Q: What sequence folds into this?
C-alpha cells in the first residue's frame, strides 16, 4: 500500500476532536494513545495482544534502537515493523529526550548532541540530519524532529535559547526529511511553562507547515495546572487540519483534560510501567495489587472488561503473583492496563462523535472513585 | 464431572507404551510431559498458551504453595485449578524434595520434616499426613507421597534407611489419603543408583497397590547411564496396569530413552528455565539465542512449528530481546520450548501407536544434530 499520509477531522465537541490519521500501514483513530515500545517491544506484551487491545500505533525510541540493535541492523532485517512483528503504524522519537535524560555525557552544540551510550560508554554524535536518517532506517511512519530538551524548572533565557535552537533544528530536519508522501515529520513546540516562549515556538513552527505538531517539554515535573495552562495558549495557535500530539502524557485524567483542549495523540510509559509494578488502571479506578486487601479477593480486575487479562484472573491471584515476583503478574497487568487505556480512548472517540464529551468526562471521573468507595470484596 | 481415576493402556512397542490417565478434569495422553507451575504459574506463560501447546497436566509444588499463598488460602479461593486458571489435571508433589533442597533448616524425623521457610525463616513441620492434607487443600488430581530424598552421591546405609522410611511413609500416606475414587496418590520408588535398594523399594510399594508409581531420586547428578540402568531394573517390577512417572526428567533425549523403557509421565523445569535463559529447544536441536551468530539471522526458530512463538519471530529479534533483557524474550522462548516438548510427546505417542518408536528415536536424534551442521543463515 502507498497511502499518502494525511489527517481527517470528523467531528469536534467544543475543543475536543475526533478524526483519523492515514498512513500506508493503517489508520490511526484519534484521539489515539500510543503504547511505548522502547526497545522494539512493548514490555511484557505479545504484539498480538497490543493490537487486539485496540492499539493503532506504537511509539519506538530511536535512542535505544540506534544503540541496540542499531538502526542499520534493523534496516537490514527489514525495518522496525518486521523486526518486532508490528505491521501497523509506528512513530519514532528523535532520540533527543532520552539522550538528555539517560546518557552520561550530553553536550549540545548547534550541530546536534554529543553523548555517551548508557550501555557501553561509547561516544556518539546525533545531528539533526542523523536523527532523520536513523528514523528512516527504522522505517517510521511518523518521525519527530530533534529538539533541545531542557530540565525542569529552567531559566527563561536558557528556555528561549533552547526553543530558538529547536526552531533552527526543525528547519534542518524538514530539509533532511524531504518530500516523502507516505511518511510524516512532526515539529515539536517547546518553551517549558512560559506562555510567551510557547507562543513564539508555535507561531514559527506553524509557518513552516509540518504534517503534524507535537507539544514537548510537558509532563516533566510541572503541575497539571501549568500543563493545562500551556495547552490552553498553545493549541489555538496550531493548524486545525493537522494532528496534534502531546508527548509523554499521561494519566487517564491528563488525557481527558488534554483531549478537551484539542489534543489528538498521546504516548506514555505509565500503563506499561505501572503494570510491571503491580498497579492496575480500571474503569473504577487505580488499584495496587500488592496491597494485602487483595489477598483473598476473588473478583477479577473488571468483570465487564473485554480483555482476558482484566476479566480472567482474580485479584487474589494477581496479588500472589506480585508477592512471589512471578513474571505473569507483570504480563497480565500490562495487558489489562493497555486494554483499559485503549478502551478509554475508544469511549472518548464515541463521546466526541455523539457530542457528549463533557458529560462523559464527568461520568468517568465519578467512576474512577468507585474502587475506593466499595467494600474490599472478601469472598 | 466425577470420572473415576484410571489408566488405560492402548499399545506397547517393545517396552514403550501409549495410554491415557483418566481424571475428573480431563484425560492425560501418555507418555505425557508435565510443565512445572511452581508458584501457581508456569513461569512467563499464560495458562491458555500452556494448554494450546498440548499440555494435558501441570505439576504444582506443594512446598512453595504451602508457604505462599498458603494451602488454606488456595482452598478458600476455590482450589489451585481455579486460582491459577487451569481447569485441567494437576499433579502436586509432596513438598519433600524442595524442602530438602531449598530450606535452611531441614531435620528429618520419623514423623516428617522440620524446616524453615526460605521466604521468612518461619519454622514448619511437614508430616506425612500434613503433606496429604495440603495436597487435598490444593485440590490435586494426583498426589505424591512424602518421601525422604537423599543427596547424591549417598552412602548405601543411609540410602537403605531413607528408602525404608519412605516405605513406612508410603503406608501412612495411603491411610491418610483414604478412598478417593476421583483422585490418586502415587508412591515413589527410591534407592539412588543402587539396584538392590531400588528392587526392594519397588517390590514393597507394588504390594501396597497404589494408583500410580513414580521413580524418584534420579536426575539429581548421576550419569544418564546410571539413570537408565536403574530404570532397567526398576520398571519391570512395577505393575503394567498403573501409570509410571519419572520425576524431574528431563532433556528430550532422556525422555526418549525413558519412554523406550516404559515410562508414562515426566516433569521437568528444563524447557521453562532454559527458555528464560535464552535457550531454545527445536526439532533441529538446541540453540543459545544469546550467541552473536543469531544477531542478523532472520529465520524463525522453526518455520515448520505450529507454535506462534516458534514460527513468528526472527532469531535476530530474540537475540536482541535477550541482549536488551526484555521480558518478551523469556515469554517467547518458554512458550516455544513447551510447545516443542509437547510436540515431541505427541510424536512419541503416534510413533508408539504405529509401532515405529525405535525408528522415530533414531530419526529424532539425527534431526537434533541439524542446527550444528547448517550454515548460520545470515540474511
A:
Amino acid at each position: 500500500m502507498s497511502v499518502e499520509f494525511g489527517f481527517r477531522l470528523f467531528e469536534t465537541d467544543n475543543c475536543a476532536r475526533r478524526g483519523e490519521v492515514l498512513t500506508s500501514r493503517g489508520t490511526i483513530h484519534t484521539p489515539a494513545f500510543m503504547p511505548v515500545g522502547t526497545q522494539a517491544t512493548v514490555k511484557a506484551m505479545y504484539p498480538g495482544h497490543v493490537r487486539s487491545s485496540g492499539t493503532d500505533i506504537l511509539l519506538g525510541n530511536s535512542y535505544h534502537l540506534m544503540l541496540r540493535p542499531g538502526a542499520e541492523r534493523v534496516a537490514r532485517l527489514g525495518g522496525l515493523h518486521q523486526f518486532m512483528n508490528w505491521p501497523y503504524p509506528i512513530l519514532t522519537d528523535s532520540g533527543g529526550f532520552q539522550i538528555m535524560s539517560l546518557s552520561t555525557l550530553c553536550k549540545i552544540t548547534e550541530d546536534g548532541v554529543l553523548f555517551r551510550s548508557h550501555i557501553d560508554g561509547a561516544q556518539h554524535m546525533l545531528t539533526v540530519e542523523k536523527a532523520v536518517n536513523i528514523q528512516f532506517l527504522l522505517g517510521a511512519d511518523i518521525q519527530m524532529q530533534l529538539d533541545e530538551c531542557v530540565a525542569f524548572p529552567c531559566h527563561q533565557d536558557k528556555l528561549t535559547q533552547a526553543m530558538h535552537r529547536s526552531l533552527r533544528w526543525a528547519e534542518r530536519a524538514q530539509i533532511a526529511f524531504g518530500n516523502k508522501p507516505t511518511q510524516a515529520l512532526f515539529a515539536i513546540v517547546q518553551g517549558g511553562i512560559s506562555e510567551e516562549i510557547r507562543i513564539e515556538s508555535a507561531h514559527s513552527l506553524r509557518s513552516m507547515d509540518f504534517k503534524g505538531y507535537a507539544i514537548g517539554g510537558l509532563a516533566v515535573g510541572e503541575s497539571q495546572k501549568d500543563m493545562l495552562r500551556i495547552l490552553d495558549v498553545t493549541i489555538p495557535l496550531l493548524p486545525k487540519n493537522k494532528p496534534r500530539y502531546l508527548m509523554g502524557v499521561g494519566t487517564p485524567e491528563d488525557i481527558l483534560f488534554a483531549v478537551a483542549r484539542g489534543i489528538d495523540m498521546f504516548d506514555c510509559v505509565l500503563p506499561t510501567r505501572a503494570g510491571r509494578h503491580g498497579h492496575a488502571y480500571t474503569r473504577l479506578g487505580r488499584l495496587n495489587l500488592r496491597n494485602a486487601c487483595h489477598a483473598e479477593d476473588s473478583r477479577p480486575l473488571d468483570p465487564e472488561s473485554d480483555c482476558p487479562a482484566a476479566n480472567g484472573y482474580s485479584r487474589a491471584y494477581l496479588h500472589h503473583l506480585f508477592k512471589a515476583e512471578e513474571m505473569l503478574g507483570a504480563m497480565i497487568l500490562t495487558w489489562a492496563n493497555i486494554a483499559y487505556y485503549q478502551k478509554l480512548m475508544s469511549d472518548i472517540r464515541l463521546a466526541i462523535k455523539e457530542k457528549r464529551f463533557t458529560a462523559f468526562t464527568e461520568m468517568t471521573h465519578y467512576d474512577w472513585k468507585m474502587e475506593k468507595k466499595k467494600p474490599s470484596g472478601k469472598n
Observations:
- Residues 327-353 of chain A form the longest helix (27 residues).
- Residues 6-268 of chain A form a domain with the TIM Barrel fold (CATH 3.20.20.105).
- Residues 239 and 328 of chain A are 44 Å apart (CA to CA).
